[in-house]
Amino acid sequence: MWSCDQREDNTLEHLLPEIFLNTMSGNVLETALRSVSEYHCDPGYLLYGNYCYHLESEDVKSWQDAEDHCSRQQGHLASIHSQEECHSACFVSAAHMVGQAWVGLNDIKSENQFVYTDGTPVTFTYWAPGEPNNHNGFSEDCVEMLYETGRWNDKSCSELNNYICKKPKAHYPAPSVQPTQYGCPQVGEAKCFKIFVSLKLKTL
């Protein structure tokens, strides 16, 4: 399992959106439209990979109420499965400067058998030192992420907290782009420019 403080070298493909990677092949405008249409999150959500993330910092809820809210948004409390996704979730939380936020990890059904609400397997953990611990003998069956470190802490599910929702990105078909007789795509008020390049040979 990875921990959040481990870093791998990322290639350019992982750091830049598709629109920049494909501008040198095919129709630039068509590529841009296709990229924008495929990489879509609802307002208030941030995109990472194939999922959209939203941190709710204005309406604190118990863990179950937070999960119910995410479910109504066609998502779940966030599951985190890799080093990169951990840093992404940390960024979402830190951007709002909240102290901590619920994620989907819990051991409500079986003590110390942690599962995610979205049904995905637990392949990565980033517990704070000494966690999980059921502090002072209390039943702490739900998990929060601490924004200052990104580490995780078990906590009583009835406590009110910020929370992170996660859901698959939306997909919309790319708009059709038909070239005119002059080779300029007919999209809105797009303007085309024709560039002439001439080479001059200089004799000595």
TrEMBL record:
Family annotation (InterPro entries): C-type_lectin-like, C-type_lectin-like/link_sf, C-type_lectin/snaclec_domain, C-type_lectin_CS, CTDL_fold
Entry annotated with the keyword Coiled coil: no
Taxonomy, superkingdom: Eukaryota
Domain C-type lectin residue range list: 48-166
A Pfam cross-reference name: Lectin_C
Keywords for this protein: Disulfide bond
PANTHER family to which the protein is assigned, alphabetical: MANNOSE, PHOSPHOLIPASE, LECTIN RECEPTOR RELATED (PTHR22803)
Name by which UniProt lists this protein: C-type lectin domain-containing protein
